[in-house]
Amino acid sequence: MSVDKHTEAAPVTLTNRLLSDLLSSAVEVGSGYWAANLTIQKAGEEASYHSPALFTEDTDWELYVEDREDGVIFTAKRQDFIDAAAKMPEHHAKNLTEHGYDAETADVWFQFALFGEIVYG
Questions:
Q1: What stretches of the chain show up as alpha helix (H) in DSSP?
Q2: Helices then strands (H, E): number in the chain?
Q3: Distance from the CA of 46 to the CA of which of 24, 36, 62, 104 falls in 20 to 30 A?
């Protein structure tokens, strides 16, 4: 169930650096209240979201994250995170384009990549 009205935002281009920064913000601060046990698989091996190589190559990767409350595991691919920026509510997308995002915006982006909407918070 979406708790935030979705309006179309201007296209947002995520650079590798912004993608890396957003993922770090979501994992370390923004989504911690609901997300746990994050893992990333790249080319069949576990990778760290801290790894610069994860964001400098066009190689696809897949992220797995567990819901803290009920243990359900959700997954999203690199492209889902790139596409999420265009699906976010306008005010959050604007934060991305101005690089003035905060933990809340990172969490919203993370949720749009995984669910296509805001599920938590």
A1: 16-25, 78-87, 90-97, 103-115
A2: 4, 4
A3: 104
pLDDT digits (tens, 9 = 90+) for 34-66: 999 999 999 888 988 888 777 776 778 999 999
* CA angle (61 as vertex; 5, 73 as ends), nearest 5: 60
- Token representation of residue 7: 């309006």
Q: Which residues of 65-87 are buried (b: 16+ CB within 10 A; e: fewer)?
A: bbeeeeeeeeebebebbeebbbb
Euclidean distance between CA atoms 95 and 37, whole angstroms: 27
Share of the chain residues as helix, strand and coil, in percent rounded to the nearest 5: 40, 20, 40
Integer CA distances (angstroms), 3 to 38, 117, 118, in order: 24, 8, 6
Residue 74 gets the label, from left (phi > 0), alpha (psi -120 to 50) or beta, of beta
Question: Backbone dihedral region of 40: left (phi > 0), alpha (psi from -120 to 50 degrees) or beta?
Answer: beta
Q: Mutual orientation of helices 16-25 and 78-87 as an angle, nearest 10°?
A: 90
